[in-house]
Amino acid sequence: MSKLNPEQYERLRREAKSPYRGLRIFIYIAFAGSGFIGAVVFFTRLIAGNGDLESNLGNFALQIGVLALMLWLYRIDRSKKSK
């Protein structure tokens, strides 16, 4: 006989199905925020013409890549939740 109410059982079942989902979502949001801030900084440096153009363009591309990766991973994680 289970001593859990149906809500607790459902929550535990969801957690067992996708462990650490909350932590993953937090990491996606934190890294996406970091990528966005970095992209803004390097974009303004590119516009202002400060520093080496090659270096700033490479760093800007890297930040956009981090942002895109985190958004893609978040979408994959979100689509698994609905299944």
Return Rg in Å.
Answer: 20 Å
Strand content: under 5%
For the record, give the distance between the C-alpha atoms at the N and C termini, rounded to a whole number.
29 Å
Low-confidence stretches: none
Biggest sheet, in brief? Answer: none
Fraction of residues in helices?
over 70%
- Strand/helix succession: HHH
Number of strands: 0
- Average predicted local confidence, pLDDT: 89
Tally of individual helices: 3
From the helix content, strand content and strand pairing, which structural class follows?
mainly alpha
Q: Specify the overall morphology.
A: rod-shaped
Topology:
Elements: H1 6-17, H2 21-48, H3 53-82
Helix pairs in contact: 2-3
Detailed description of the structure:
There is one protein chain. By secondary structure, the chain is mainly alpha-helical. It contains 3 helices and no strands. It has helices at 6-17, 21-48, 53-82. α2 (21-48) runs antiparallel to α3. The radius of gyration is 20 Å and the shape is rod-shaped. The model has no long low-confidence stretch (mean pLDDT 89).
